[in-house]
Every structure is written in structure tokens, then in C-alpha cells.
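Quick one:
INPUT:
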């Protein structure tokens, strides 16, 4: 994040990332987890129209915000800014989760969505760490306070994602029954 000479760099400064790089194309594969004999996508397709409309409205709102974020993020050179790299990765994962609610995208079942939520939480935690490093070096107290306020929100959202994904994973593992509500 901060300019460093090659001599200042340490091998421990580099972490390997386990993010899946997936295309935006939908791939139809078999769902290996079923709920009452049906895939999660099939159940989503059978929702009442008012719930489908509500989901569609939320997806449209999300896509509008995603477009704004993409436009803003594309202005930055991601090769020199770790926070931008993390934001782009998180955005791609969120888009895959949104596609799942519409029966599209690479996520095939609820456990894939849970795994994606965990990845977002992990990336958010790394973003929080980087942001706090920047805040520690920020000379402007107003900017520092704003940044710390945003970082608190990121930490809260990451914590919520971790709790939800752990609860969902436990529910899935108990008796092999899947609960789709809340996904």
C-alpha cells in the first residue's frame, strides 16, 4: 500500500489468495444437495410472484449500486492498491451470489453461497486491516475519523456474514436438511 523499495519488501508481506476466478457465464451443473428432492434453484423458481418481485427489486437495486461501484473502482489502477483489488474481488463474489438468487451463475447450491459469504467476510477483514493501517498514518483527523467509521461498518458486516454463514453451515450439517430461507 505504501511505496517500498525492493530491499524493504519481505516474503512475509505477501499472502497467497484462495479466491476463485470464475467467468460470468452461467454453467448448468447438477445440484448435489437437494431439499425435499428439489434443488435450491428449483425452490427459488417456485416462490410466489410477490416474493419473486421483491427479490427482483432487491437485485435491481444491488446491480445499480454494483454498477456505480464498478465505475468508481475502474478509475483506479488495481495493481498498486490492495484495497481496490479486495473491493473488486468482493464485488465479483457478491455478483455471483446475486446471480444464484436468479438461478444463474456459477454458484450451484446453498453451500456454495455460504462459502462465498465466508470469502467476502475474509476479504472484508483484510480490507479492515489495510484501512486501519492507512488511518494510523492519516494526518487529517476528520478524514481519519470518517475512515474509521466506515471500517467499523465493514467489521460489523463481516461479523454478521461470518455468523450467518456458520449458522447456515451448521443447519445444513444437522440431519442433511437444508433451509433456504434467508439465503
Amino acid at each position: 500500500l505504501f511505496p517500498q523499495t525492493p530491499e524493504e519488501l519481505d516474503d512475509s508481506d505477501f499472502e497467497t489468495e484462495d479466491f476463485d476466478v470464475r467467468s460470468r457465464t452461467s454453467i448448468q451443473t447438477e445440484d448435489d444437495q437437494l431439499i425435499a428432492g428439489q434443488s435450491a434453484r428449483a425452490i427459488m423458481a417456485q416462490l410466489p410472484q410477490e416474493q419473486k418481485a421483491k427479490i427482483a427489486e432487491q437485485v435491481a437495486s444491488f446491480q445499480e449500486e454494483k454498477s456505480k461501484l464498478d465505475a468508481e473502482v475502474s478509475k483506479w489502477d488495481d495493481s498498486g492498491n490492495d484495497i481496490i483489488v479486495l473491493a473488486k474481488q468482493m464485488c465479483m463474489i457478491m455478483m455471483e451470489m446475486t446471480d444464484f438468487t436468479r438461478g444463474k451463475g456459477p454458484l450451484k447450491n446453498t453451500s456454495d453461497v455460504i462459502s462465498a459469504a465466508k470469502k467476502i467476510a475474509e476479504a472484508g477483514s483484510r480490507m479492515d486491516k489495510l484501512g486501519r493501517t492507512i488511518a494510523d498514518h492519516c494526518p487529517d483527523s476528520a478524514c481519519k475519523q470518517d475512515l474509521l467509521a466506515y471500517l467499523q461498518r465493514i467489521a460489523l458486516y463481516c461479523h454478521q456474514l461470518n455468523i450467518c454463514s456458520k449458522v447456515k453451515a451448521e443447519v445444513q450439517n444437522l440431519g442433511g436438511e437444508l433451509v433456504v430461507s434467508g439465503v
